[in-house]
Every structure is written in structure tokens, then in C-alpha cells.
Amino acid sequence: MPEEKLIGPVEVVRDESGYWYHPDIPDFDEDAEAWKAWLGAQGLKVIGWHMDSDLEAHPYWNDEACNCLGWEPETPPEYDWFLLGIFDTDDGPYVQWARREVTP
User: Fold this and answer.
1) Is 60 part of any domain?
2) pLDDT for res 1
3) Count of domains in the chain?
4) N-to-C CA span, the chain
5) 26 within some domain
């Protein structure tokens, strides 16, 4: 079995609605267990938060927009985080960051 390619930072070009997804993430078809297994195989720690954690107001919440334009999530302060995606969820726009876990 070939070794799985480890993902890392890539150029982020958000779409016309402000969303973006890392191109090297496989399609898991909403299979949470497969996603967790893949993260483990990649050695990634993941963090994320919803847009409402960063912005008090946005047209998205008034049903005036289906985008997250104007939201520029800050990279976490620790070293080596890279963007996995900015995407819409049932609870609104969400950003997800990853970094390789260091094993002693």
C-alpha cells in the first residue's frame, strides 16, 4: 500500500461567496469517522470557529446574503497552522485550521 501524501499549506483563493476548501482533502461524503481517521493518519490537529465568533454583524444573519464576504479569519497565534477551509454549515460560516502534531 503506498504511503498517503501529507497535506500542507497551499495558496488560498476564495470563491465569489468567500468560501474555500483545501484541494487535497478527500471527499468523505459527511462520514465523520472517515474524516477523523484521515486526520489521524495525517497527524493533524484541527481547530475552528464560526463567523459569529469574529463578527458581531453580517448580512448572512439577516438572510440578506449567503456569503461570508468581509470575514477574514485570523491564523491561530501558534506556529505552523494552515487553512483547511472556510465553508457554510447549518450554524453559519465556519473556518477550520490544521497543523501537524509533533510527536515526541
Assistant:
1) yes
2) 37
3) 1
4) 26
5) yes
92 contacts 52 by C-beta, under 8 angstroms: yes
Q: What is the dihedral of CA 10, 88, 19, 5, to 10 degrees?
A: 20
Cell triple for 2: 503506498
Q: Are 64 and 70 a contacting pair, CB within 8 Å?
A: no
In a domain, 11, yes or no: no
Percent helix, strand and coil across the chain, each to the nearest 5? 15, 25, 60
Assigned domain for 47 exists: yes
Average pLDDT over residues 32-54: 95
Q: Whole domain around residue 59: which residue ranges?
A: 20-100
Mean pLDDT, rounded, for 19-46: 95
User: In the structure, what pLDDT confidence band is assigned to residue 60 with cuts at 50, 70 and 90?
Assistant: confident
